[in-house]
Amino acid sequence: MTITPAYDLECIDIAKSFGDFRAVKDVSFTIPSGSFFSILGPSGCGKTTLMRMIAGFETPSGGDIKIKGASVLGTPPNKRNVKMVFQHLALFPMMNVYENIAYGLRCKGVSNDEIKLKVQDVLERIALPDVGHREIHQLSGGQKQRIAIARCMVLDPDVLLLDEPLGALDLKLREAMKIELKLLQHQFNTTFIYITHDQSEALVMSDHVAIMNEGRFEQIGTPQELYHRPNTSFVASFVGDSNRWSGKVADSDGTGGKVRTEQGLDMAFSAAAGQTISTGSEVDIFVRPEFIRTIRENDPAAAISDGDNRMSGIVDSLLFNGANSRVLVRGWSGELIEADVILTGTDDLAPGEKVDLVWSPAQAMCFEKTGAA
Ligand code: ATP
């Protein structure tokens, strides 16, 4: 009986040092079959090094990598059933689309008849059935992306690695390609591992995202988990926008308490499930702009619950961006606080106006300082 592994990829304590420098530090994770997994982190955190070890271009200093349950350590890149799409795509400019896609099959000695069937099938799956005869320079940026993916997928890899493939595209095309890539991954039902430093790409496309920082994974979760229940200050600040205050816990009963911020503001917070924050701890507090309500100063009609955080300030500026418009409010101690608002053009807040900012303790995410964030 053959047992199909539940995971296409397993990394176990994988590490890489360059001399004394530890670029990847004992990272362990598994990727369920047929999922879209992103590795998101700032420049230099070790994403590409990790990807290159999975592809076989770099030898780990420690740990193991298993694909479909079998270790691939010692297996050269061309013998691993892993394909990689690079930012520059690496299409062959002297070959037309058909020959670009057929190339890998020809190298494997596949017959011309079979190549024809496979290339046509993959062109149909990427919704470009009629471009086989085109030269590469005759394709749009988005079409080139799809051909680069088709060229890999025609070889039926266990895992497709994508190293910031949208990085070179203009903003509009990048937005369109995010959705496109997600649809393509569904279409092929193959595990895609995508590395990026762009959180909006990772959140939109992925089933699961790993947040990488200084060679380690800080947290792995669904986009929703990472956004709403970050485990660390680094994740809270790297994923999504947040207002951030530092301070000291003035009192805490285990489920929540009050922080005195460096600006002298008392801020109530509720601890997340399983989180213990002790009195006296140095902490960071994060509040997302969409959870802060901006109300005209002392507005009697504003519904404010007992225990809500409330601070006053003066409108500094309004940033119109359709439904995602934002107001920047200068707090009394000088800090700028961002809150999401709906700007309609009538009766909007105006710079210089006094306002109250209100948010619930449950929306204040609190983390003890580790020194690494
Ligand atoms: P970016 O998003 O900028 O591509 P990254 O997260 O992919 O960054 P890596 O390219 O993996 O980061 O690099 C991680 C760290 O390892 C960096 O400090 C880099 O300078 C270092 N590094 C990478 N390759 C080598 C090498 N061959 N020799 C020495 N140091 C290296």
From TrEMBL:
This is ABC transporter ATP-binding protein. GO terms for cellular component: ATP-binding cassette (ABC) transporter complex. It comes from the Bacteria. GO terms for molecular function: ATP binding; ATP hydrolysis activity; transmembrane transporter activity. Keywords: ATP-binding, Nucleotide-binding, Transport. Pfam families: ABC_tran, TOBE_2. Residues 9-239 form the ABC transporter domain. InterPro entries: AAA+_ATPase, ABC_SmlMolc_Importer, ABC_transporter-like_ATP-bd, ABC_transporter-like_CS, Mo/tungstate-bd_C_term_dom, P-loop_NTPase, Transp-assoc_OB_typ2. Belongs to the ABC transporter superfamily. GO terms for biological process: quaternary ammonium group transport.
